[in-house]
Amino acid sequence: ALIASLLFPMLATVLWYLLDIFLVPLSWSVRYAIGTWQPISAEWTFVIAVGSVVRVLRHVMPRHVWMFVCVIVVMTGLFPKQDNQTWRIDVLDVGHGLAVLVEKEGRVLLYDTGKAWHNGSIAEQVITPVLHRRGYSSVDTMILSHADNDHAGGRKVIEQYF
């Protein structure tokens, strides 16, 4: 529908309408979903994305073309490996507050844990899924800049899980 919007506006209208109809069950089911992230690895994300593209390409391109595209994608490094010798620093989006993740040689330092509230925390929603996705089962060092909730609120969650 998106590509049709650029090339064939009249056809795009019909395709967007059909897409809306197909998304009704999904929209309905979202109400019953658990309000947490279900992290999957970068490898599985890549496989799902490539599989989705192949599924579309096989209907619009000759078989030898989309198979060639798949071979090229696989040969260019299906799962790029991160060099453990380099530093990786991520400032995580935790809303108001702070959480910085520093990684090197398989070790993790977490600076601040973001905010917590009565029945949850940013650590549960953001930090924990990131650490799990990257394969960490422990945090080597946790530094809290100060005891305010927006910087240290997720401490208990991090200590519980890691």
TrEMBL record:
Keywords: Hydrolase, Membrane, Transmembrane, Transmembrane helix. Gene3D superfamilies: Ribonuclease Z/Hydroxyacylglutathione hydrolase-like. InterPro entries: Competence_DNA_uptake, Metallo-B-lactamas, RibonucZ/Hydroxyglut_hydro. GO terms for molecular function: hydrolase activity. It holds the Pfam family Lactamase_B. The chain crosses the membrane at residues 6-28, 40-57, 63-79. This is MBL fold metallo-hydrolase. SUPFAM superfamilies: Metallo-hydrolase/oxidoreductase. Residues 93-154 form the Metallo-beta-lactamase domain.
